[in-house]
Write a structure and sequence with these properties.
Blueprint: H1 6-35, H2 37-42, E1 47-52, E2 55-56, H3 57-68, E3 71-73, H4 76-79, E4 83-84, E5 87-93, H5 94-102, E6 107-112, E7 115-120, E8 140-142, E9 146-154, E10 157-172, E11 176-191, E12 207-222, E13 233-253, E14 256-279, E15 282-294, E16 300-311, E17 314-341, E18 345-362, E19 364-366, E20 373-375, E21 384-397, E22 402-414, E23 427-440
């Protein structure tokens, strides 16, 4: 008969007590393992809560992977063309969520181990016994960098943009593919100083335009038959001031411009007259008394007592100064061609002709009787005349639609300023200095 060993029983009781003391720790560790997100993702068909806004199907599956690390294999090129409405659920299995997302898309899924494969036009059942291949190791593929060089020039500042595009393809978790694009742009500034520069803006230099302008002229008078010089005197005319304002309008296409102009021109010149008249310097006889003698033959002879008076020489000087004015309204045509055309500057040749109508006059002309000058009469001035010109000009772009246009013309008039039957023969030649501002519509 065997008796129980009291020492052995005591050891068993101690061991049992220790085991009961470890039991709460084991239960706490098991609960942490079961309810952790990683354990949840590895649990067979776990219950999840999932929501997504309206997006493409591939984006929804990527969000499912990002939230619960569920491996879903699919073709991004195909699923990116399918758009789904917003979706939300609570405590559904992964397969139910996938079924809801793929409903009506023509795609189904198949679970192979821990991975769900999305396929087209067939509803696949789960095959838990399918062979599970080990996921490949993540790898990074670096594509050869592609460089694009862009040169931008603004004035004397050259900007060179070198763009390097690096494409990294990262493969993670079986067939989940993510592509990351990194673009790096380096800007190189090359500055060359060439003195003070005007920052010209971009401009418009074609189309319809108008050009208001002002003109100052340097005039010369030409006399084919000479001025009618008075006896014992002189007559002369000298240019004083010629100015005008105008408005041009026309159309410009590439280098050629054509149009019409309307202008006002005032011609002013000095009228200078000097003449000397003489009188006297002779004797005047005067009869003081008269008597007669009777001859025997019966003839009578009259005798006169005479006296003479000297009339002294008298000199009269006539000097007259006046500023004559002739005002004209002109209507004409013109054409211009750009022989230099740069980004913000152009130079051109220009030619035109106009008909000038007399609209006002004032001043004096010579006369044949003292005081040998008289106001200008309407019958003495030519009412119309023709003038033509040619010259050079340039244009500076000062705004998007505006040019500053200085010009120099040589202008000639056809015919005299006064009528042919009036002996005051005078033709005019001028150098025009014109400044205008062109606006393009």
């Amino acid at each position: 008969m065997k008796y129980p060993n009291p020492n052995i029983d005591l050891d068993r009781q101690n061991h049992k007590g220790k085991a009961l003391g470890r039991l709460p720790l084991l239960l706490l560790f098991a609960a942490f393992w079961v309810f952790s997100p990683r354990a949840l993702s590895q649990t067979f068909n776990p219950l999840i809560s999932f929501s997504v806004e309206s997006c493409t199907l591939d984006q929804a599956l990527e969000k499912l992977f990002a939230d619960y690390e569920l491996n879903v294999a699919f073709s991004k090129a195909e699923l990116s063309k399918i758009r789904i409405e917003s979706y939300s659920c609570s405590y559904k299995s992964v397969e139910e969520v996938l079924t809801d997302l793929l409903k009506g898309t023509g795609y189904g899924f198949k679970r192979i181990g821990k991975q769900y494969v999305i396929r087209k036009n067939q509803l696949l059942v789960n095959e838990p016994d399918a062979t599970i291949s080990a996921p490949p190791e993540p790898k990074v593929e670096v594509v050869k960098p592609k460089r694009d060089t862009v040169v931008s020039r603004t004035g004397d500042i050259v900007r060179i943009y070198d763009t390097t595009q690096i494409i990294r393809t990262v493969m993670r978790y079986d067939t989940i593919v993510k592509i990351q694009h990194e673009v790096k742009t380096d800007t190189v500034y090359t500055v060359k100083y060439q003195g003070w520069q005007i920052p010209w803006p971009e401009f418009r230099n074609n189309g319809w335009f108008i050009t208001p302008s002002v003109t100052l002229s340097s005039a010369q008078f030409k006399h084919d038959n000479g001025l009618p010089q008075p006896e014992n005197g002189s007559l002369d005319v000298k240019p004083s001031l010629v100015y005008g304002i105008g408005l041009d309008g026309g159309y410009k296409h590439n280098r050629l411009s054509v149009g019409m102009n309307l202008g006002y021109r005032s011609v002013r010149y000095r009228f200078l007259l000097e003449q000397t008249m003489f009188s006297g310097d002779y004797y005047v006889n005067d009869t003081l008394d008269t008597y007669y003698v009777v001859h025997p033959a019966g003839d009578t002879t009259f005798q006169y007592v005479l006296d003479s008076t000297y009339v002294p020489l008298t000199t009269t000087n006539y000097a007259y100064r006046d500023v004559n004015r002739l005002d004209y309204l002109s209507v004409g045509l013109f054409a211009a061609f750009d022989f230099v055309k740069l980004e913000h500057f152009r130079a051109f040749v220009k030619a035109g002709a106009s008909v000038d109508f007399l609209i006002g006059y004032a001043g004096s002309l010579n006369a044949t009787e003292a005081p040998f000058h008289a106001p200008i009469a309407k019958t003495q001035v030519e009412p119309t005349r023709i003038s033509y010109y040619g010259g050079l000009g340039c244009a500076f772009k000062v705004a998007h639609r505006i040019e500053l246009v200085p010009e120099v013309h040589y202008r000639m008039t056809h015919g005299a300023l006064y009528r042919a039957d009036f002996p005051f023969d005078m033709k005019m030649r001028m150098w025009d200095y014109r400044l205008g501002l062109t606006y393009y519509f």
